[in-house]
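In this section we walk through a basic example: taking a raw amino acid sequence and producing a predicted 3D structure, encoded as discrete structure tokens. The instruction is simple. Fold the sequence below.
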Amino acid sequence: MVIYKVPRKLEVTWIEDIKAIVDTWQSYFVTQFEFERAILEKGLGHAKANNGIAWIVDSTNASGAMPKFMIDFIDKKVFPEFSKNGIKYFITISSGASVIARKTVSQFSAKTHHNGLILVELDNLEEAIIWLKNKQNEK
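The resulting token sequence is shown next.
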């Protein structure tokens, strides 16, 4: 289910059976306003209202790089909000992404652990869905 779109940059979707938000990136050239609205307001708001446990970032087709102030914003604001609102797993998919986009993913992924999130790096969305279903079955 599509929750929100930033045209030609980002699509935020919800997968109910795994209780996860999926950010599918086309371009990391987003403004902070676009990012906050898509991630914190729309995405996290939906995850919180529906008992979300995971956030998947699919950068397979992403281009560009986020500026340092955005990486810092993710570290200081976004990840703490994820943890506070029930997000436990932060899953990255960047196998087909450009070198620059993969570097962006590694920069913000490095901030997960000290914010209480479990980082999982996988090759594609299908693997992420299977991984989360397996985690749910462990309970």
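Looking at the output, two observations stand out. The chain has one domain: 2-138. The mean pLDDT is 90. In the next section we compare this with other chains.
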